[in-house]
Every structure is written in structure tokens, then in C-alpha cells.
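Worked Example 4.2. Consider the chain below.
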Amino acid sequence: MVYVREMSDTNLTLIVSGKLWRNSLVMQDEETGTLWSHITGEALDGPMRGQFLETIPSVQATWRQWVGEHPDTKVLKKEEEVTGSRYETYFRDPERAGMFRVEWLRARLPGKSMVYGISRGPFALAVTEERLASAPLLNTRVGKDSLVVYRSDDGGVRAFVSRIDSLQLAFSLAGESGQVRDTETGSLWNLEEGTSTAGRLEGTRLVEIKVLPAFWFAWSNFYPRTEVLD
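Applying the procedure from the previous section yields the following C-alpha cells:
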């Protein structure tokens, strides 16, 4: 998750609070002491309670893929090399689903199933890793919004609102080049950037929305009424 730190004309400095909410990390800002959910960006307690941090869509990608698309990118680098994680045993154990016993939708998917979650207002959708591995392009809906979800060759998953003004679009793969074509105008699209590369809509950019990679137990705990594509 990536959030804008500016809130009410204040640049927040966010740190790990040491607290958990629904088995997920809670951040705290040093300026006001407000506690923030790292899943939803909502202020849970403190002077800013009820406010939300603005989200910037992000994607997990290989360095080769990312730097190829963004050659002038800046890099946030740790001072020391990261060689492992204290949570490796936890990640490998399929029975360990969070630090505390909470209710989640156990009957729907295994707890450690990786899903890509999308929320739009009160509506939510979870797309499984297996579904995207077999069908990397999905035309779907979340609430009233028509969306296209795309998984690139390096595994990065992005989602876009599939509407340009009043024109509703549906997409399909166009050969093996990684390009996509919309049914309505025949324009070609690069859905790693959300832009049309050729055709009537050339140069048009779709609105990108947040996709959250998460374990099923965590996503369903936050969004118990979520739809699932698996």
C-alpha cells in the first residue's frame, strides 16, 4: 500500500505502532499520535479518527520490468542488505493465520491463499492468484464500477476503470505481445500503464485503482462480504 502523507496541511511521519487490528499492522503518526490502518488508510483512534489517507495505486513488480517502464525512477534503498525475514517460518506454515484468533471465511478459501483485493465503497472483490495465472485479463465489476484487471508476465497485478467518458470498454488479449484490444473501438492498449497505444483512442489513459495483495484470512476479515473470483 502507498499513501499520501499530507493530511490537513500537515506532512505526517508514520511509524509502526506495535499494535494490531484484525491481525494487521497499525501505523501511528508522530505529529498527532493518531493510529492508522495500513489496510484501509483509515484513522482508527486519535485526533484524526475517521479520516482516510489518500491512496496511490502501486504494483509488485520485478526490477527489470519496473525500470524498463520507468528508467528515471528513484530507489528507496535500505542502509543494510536484507538477507531474510523473521517471519519466514510463519509464512511457510499454512495453519498460522494471524497472531490472534479471529473469524474469517474459512470455508471459502484456505487462509494463506494469496488474493488481489479491490474495494470500491462498500463493495469488495478478491481475485485469487490461481485465477490470474490461468486468465491474466479479467473484465469484471465491483459495485457499480466496471473494471479490467490485468496480470503482467512478471506477476504485477493492476486494475483500471474500464470507461472513457460515456464509453464502456471491454478488453481481450491481442496476440502474444502482451498488448490488449478493446472490443468497442479496436484500439490497442498497454495495461501495464493503462494507456492506449494505437487506434481511435491512442493516447487515452484509464484511471488506475488500488489493488491490495493479501492473504485470504486478512482480506476476508476486513471485507467479509467480498466477492471472489477463483
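The chain has four helices and 20 strands. The mean pLDDT is 90. Compare this with Example 4.1 before moving on.
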